[in-house]
Design brief:
9 strands; DUF6130; two-stranded antiparallel sheet; single chain; alpha+beta
Length: 146
């Protein structure tokens, strides 16, 4: 009988410990896109400087992340009502009169720049292309070794 009580107590402790440390799907992937979130916090854009090793070879790799907004390829006025928010980024190199759009959420890659100072403007935009937040990254592309 004592063995049975001991095994029961161990099973209960294991169950409690597992439940206390388990994370829900919401903890891992975030809120469900099917249920509106009241009082959503404002989206944030965090942009890192270019990665040093590729930059030394003339390649610009810029990592970024967003908070309170998922970067996905969904556009149009109807997508403004999706919760949690969705959007994409606009990327402008060296004050060019045009920008390109990225909706993958992956590292920004820029190639073909000449050695010297450059800047990349990263704008977080809603599905209708309205800019919500932006950051500019300035860097110098080194000259090529002879």
């Amino acid at each position: 009988m004592d063995t049975l009580k001991c095994l029961t107590a161990m099973a209960a402790c294991t169950l409690l410990a597992t439940a206390a440390s388990a994370q829900s799907a919401k903890d891992i992937v975030g809120p469900s896109p099917l249920v509106a979130i009241e009082n959503e916090p404002l989206p944030r854009l965090i942009v890192d400087p270019p990665l040093a090793e590729p930059l030394s070879r003339g390649l610009v790799f810029i990592q970024y992340r967003t908070e309170n907004l998922r970067v996905v390829p969904v556009f149009g006025k109807g997508a403004l009502d999706v919760s949690p928010r969705i959007g994409h980024v606009h990327i402008t190199v060296d004050d060019a009169p045009w920008h390109f759009v990225d909706a993958t959420g992956q590292t920004i890659i820029v190639v073909g720049l000449k050695p010297g100072p450059h800047k990349v403007l990263v704008e977080l935009a809603d599905p209708t292309h309205r800019v919500i937040a932006s950051e500019t990254v300035s860097f110098t592309l080194p000259g090529q070794a002879p």
